[in-house]
UniProtKB/TrEMBL annotation:
SUPFAM superfamilies reported for this sequence: Carboxypeptidase regulatory domain-like
Superkingdom of origin: Bacteria
Record organism: Sphingomonas piscis
Protein known as: Probable outer membrane usher protein EcpC
InterPro entries in the record: CarboxyPept-like_regulatory, Pilus_assem_C, Pilus_assem_E-set-like_dom
Protein family membership: Belongs to the EcpC/MatD family.
Pfam families the record matches: CooC_C, TcfC
């Protein structure tokens, strides 16, 4: 069939210059050759160069080099909003709107590289200028006329990505003890350590302290480290849109994402394994949802990124009045971990001394309803070990937590000699009850079920060491709410416990009442206890009250008082705590009546010191490994500011003050000031970014100038008003009216620059300003 006379040229190919859209956004202009129903790119390579994140340009080039269907039937219009504007091509496809000279290009998601809102890079190392963060704590406790004390200190000396870390204590009966003293260097994805420190150890041996060196994979310096700990969630979007993340119907995050393969930002999601919903807001108000499974566990290697480690050195002991006590036992450890999929991970380690070598193989399963850990150990001397742990994810009413372990030691001695340790700020935590002295079997766990707001559960533990009697304890508990109102809770409680040497039971009620910084807690019931053949039973109860207050500068204090009647005795106690910019103080006292009469007390004081070449500060509410010192200078004495870190208020300060804030390390923070009240002031309102590593101290200073709004009348030498003159200062711009009156903001020392309509200028510096409520009258200003 031929075209009608005069229309034959419409069938001929013709050139068109069109706007190229990708993901709903214009990315450039392209030249096309168009004929009815068909479109060809004149320069497909140029079109591909305009597209972000193409994984296989050659495959895409082969597709765009041929003539493509125009798909005009899929053009959206005010009358057609459904089933339009979308394609799901095998490689690539287009929708060409000739009337608007627009061509939308669609590419198969498999050809697009994933993109992330969180930069997948490494934190920039802080300045190499030396700095120090130190925490000091004093603990006093006493009873019966005897007082114990312990002074703890943690100090980090840092320069850029390197640091020296020290934890020490001075305690009664121990003297000075150094818990660790180690130099560390972060080099992208590795951390090098040398000195005395706690090696990571393994499940069935524990965490040893060594004097030696080591190297391990680390993700702390990654900007996306929180993402790496969780299951990657990829979502393809054919255009920019907003995506909500919901868990159990609760909105946990909402962000806008660009078109393409997006790695969803999961940094706001909690640890655990659970199902979630991605709610995608499409154009026209439509939404669609996708269900995904997500798991986060910091102990498991990130998906696709193996973890490796190696440590060696001499085991270190703790001896009284000996700051450092290396032993004669050589220790080594090497291994790795790898995540096979979102729900499965494996690990292996070789550990040993000159007496024996061991290998441990383990794995994790991160399921929708349960998390499991299993490990097995075998040594060159025939020692064996096994571990099984299981815990529920909290996704249902049933809760489960089980730990089963067995160690068989041929000589009934610890597989690795276990060092003692002193109490301090160190992260080295030694659980001797789990490690045992040699051959042992241990089981502990709990199982419970939620019934509405109530809970029924059973808790138990079992321990048997070779050559000793077995110990066990087991007992049920139940909590059922009776009254649930705003500020008032009344619940029925009952529990019982049976162990090798005792039996105990309790039944009663518990009351919680709270409002406006005050709370009252009480319980009353009947309890019985039998131990070593002796039985005691009677009515028991507790009543406790607490007052709490938080000031505008985030200082907090609380005070508590209580009286308690137990099966054994009656006691009263009181306590309190204060959190301020100068540190943390806590104290409590308890007095018992009856046969066991006596008084006990405890006091704990903690504070920090941050020091750098540009500033120093003492105090701080939280004791973290890095610090920020904010200071405000200037003449605006009445101005008051909130210090916002990542848009969260961390304290309040005025001109002439400084505020130390201790923060977690390996983070980038955005910092700014927000005015609260006081005089009109000029200051830098822009956010400032700082990166903190352990031991880093960042000093930020703001200069605040008091502002005065001045008003007056500008006149010439003859006294005639100057109309329509531009009035400028460093901080403001104004204009005189037809009668010469003007108003403008200025700071101390500012001059007034007047520019007449004809271009003539004059400068005047006001003097002897006497502002009232932020305003000052200049009277007549001659120009």
């Amino acid at each position: 069939m031929e075209a009608p006379s005069g229309f034959a040229n419409l069938d001929e190919p013709r050139p068109v210059l069109a706007d190229l859209y990708f993901g709903g956004k214009k990315v450039g202009d392209v030249e096309l050759t168009v004929r009815p129903g068909k479109v060809r790119f004149d320069d497909p390579e140029q079109a591909i160069s305009l597209l972000p994140g193409i994984l296989d340009p050659q495959q895409l080039l082969a597709e765009l080099a041929r003539e493509l269907p125009a798909n005009a039937a899929l053009i959206c219009s005010p009358m057609k909003t459904d089933e339009c504007g979308r394609l799901s091509p095998a490689v690539a496809g287009i929708i060409f709107d000739e009337e608007r000279f627009r061509i939308d290009l669609f590419v198969n998601p498999g050809l697009l590289a994933p993109t992330s809102l969180v930069p997948q890079d490494y934190l920039e190392a802080p300045s190499k200028a030396p700095s120090m963060v130190s925490s000091v704590g004093l603990t006093l406790s006493g009873s019966g006329g005897r007082t114990n004390y312990n002074i703890q200190n943690r100090t980090l000396l840092a320069a850029g990505n390197a640091r020296v870390r020290s934890d020490s204590s001075y305690a009664r009966g121990y003297g000075l003890v150094v818990d660790n003293l180690v130099a560390e260097v972060d080099a992208r994805n590795l951390r090098y350590s040398a000195g005395m420190f706690w090696a990571p150890g393994i499940d069935l041996v524990g965490q040893p302290r060594i004097v030696g060196a080591g190297v391990a994979t680390q993700f702390d310096t990654r900007t996306d480290k929180d993402l790496l700990e969780g299951t990657p969630l990829y979502l393809f979007l054919d255009r920019a849109t907003r995506v909500d993340i919901l868990v159990d119907g609760r909105l946990l995050d909402s962000r806008a994402y660009e078109a393409g393969n997006n790695l969803i930002d999961t940094t706001a999601l909690p640890t655990g394994a659970y199902a979630l919903v991605l709610r995608i807001h499409d154009t026209g108000g439509r939404t669609r949802e996708e269900r995904r499974f997500f798991a986060r566990n910091a102990q498991v290697a990130p998906q696709g990124k193996p973890m490796l480690f190696a440590y060696a050195g001499m085991l270190a002991n703790t001896r009284r009045h000996r700051p450092v006590s290396p032993s004669g036992t050589f220790y080594y450890q090497a291994g790795g971990a790898y995540r096979l999929s979102a729900g499965f991970a494996v690990d292996a380690a070789v550990v040993g001394t000159q007496r024996r070598s061991m290998v441990q193989l383990g794995g994790y399963h991160l399921g929708r309803t349960v998390r499991m850990r299993a490990a097995a150990l075998l040594s060159t001397r025939g020692d064996t070990g096994a571990l099984i742990q299981a815990s529920s994810t909290g996704s249902g009413p049933l809760s489960l937590n089980v730990d089963l372990r067995r160690i068989s030691s041929k000589d009934n001695r610890p597989l690795i000699p276990v060092p003692a340790y002193a109490d301090g700020f160190s992260d080295g935590v030694l659980d001797r009850t789990r490690l045992g002295s040699g051959t042992y079997t241990q089981a502990s766990g709990s199982i419970g079920y939620r019934i509405g707001q109530g809970y029924v559960g059973v808790t138990g533990a079992y321990r048997h060491d070779r050559g000793r009697r077995s110990d066990y304890s087991v007992g049920p508990s139940i909590t059922l709410p009776v009254v649930q109102r705003s500020g008032l809770q009344l619940a029925f409680q009952a529990d019982a416990q049976r162990s090798r040497s005792s039996t105990a039971a309790y039944v009663g009620f518990r009351l919680n009442a709270f409002a406006h910084g005050r709370s009252l807690i009480g319980n009353a019931g009947y309890a019985s206890r039998r131990q070593d053949g002796e039985r005691a039973q009677r009515m028991v109860g507790t009543i406790a009250g607490e007052l709490y207050h938080q000031a505008a500068d985030r200082s907090e204090w609380n005070a508590t008082a209580a009286a308690e009647r137990t099966v054994e005795d009656t006691n009263v106690r009181a306590g309190g705590s204060l959190y301020s910019r100068f540190g943390v103080s806590k104290g409590d006292v308890l007095h018992r009546f009856g046969d066991t009469a006596g008084t006990q007390y405890g006091v704990n004081i903690q504070a920090g010191l941050a020091l750098s070449g540009t500033g120093a500060a003492f105090g701080g509410r939280e004791l973290m490994q890095s610090a920020l010192i904010a200071s405000v200078a200037g003449d605006a004495k009445d101005a008051e500011f909130d210090l916002l870190i990542n848009n969260m208020p961390k304290g309040r300060l005025r001109a002439g003050q400084q505020l130390p804030v201790y923060l977690p390390a390996y983070r980038r923070y955005d910092v700014r000031l927000r005015p609260v009240s006081g005089a009109n002031a000029s200051f830098d309102t822009q956010e400032r970014s700082v990166t903190l590593f352990p031991g880093t101290v960042a000093a930020l200073r703001w200069s605040v100038e008091e502002m005065v709004t001045v008003f007056g009348k500008v006149v010439d030498q003859s006294g005639a008003p100057i109309a329509d003159a531009r009035v400028e200062t460093r901080h403001g711009i104004g204009e005189s009216d037809s009668a010469g009156f003007f108003q403008v903001d200025l700071a101390k020392g500012d001059e007034l620059l007047f520019t007449r309509s004809g271009g003539e200028r004059c400068r005047v510096t006001p003097s002897n300003l006497q502002p009232k409520a932020g305003y000052a009258a200049l009277g007549k200003v001659m120009c």
